[in-house]
Amino acid sequence: MSKEQTFLKDQRKSVYNKSERVMEPWKASYKHNSNREDLRLMYAAYGIMRGRTFSQIENTHPEESHPLRAFQRDIDKLIEQYEQEVVHISE
To answer: In CA terms, which of 23, 41, 67, 72 is 20 to 30 Å from 83?
Structure first.
């Protein structure tokens, strides 16, 4: 997903894009934003699994009012999914 972000960055340009146009700029913009949000939550879940707090993961907000708190349920689902994959692989 992170490698796709580089491709989408070029596709978002309406002029001066470096590669061949594969999708409309508005679709690339939408997909890039969606991926960015997903990657942010995945990174937060990884940080929490390593014992970090939200303010240690993204050092831009205080812990009490961190914006990632709004996504706590989604982050918990990702952590549960990761833990199931690790158990499945280790069996």
So the answer is: 67
Residue type at 3? K
14 Cβ neighbours under 8 A, 6+ residues apart: 25
If one counts the domains in the chain, the total is: 1
Cα dist from 55 to 6, 44, 58, 67, 70, whole Å: 27, 10, 5, 10, 14
Distance CA 11, CA 18 (A): 9
pLDDT tens digits, one per residue of 35-91: 999 999 999 999 999 999 999 998 888 888 899 999 999 999 999 998 887 766 665
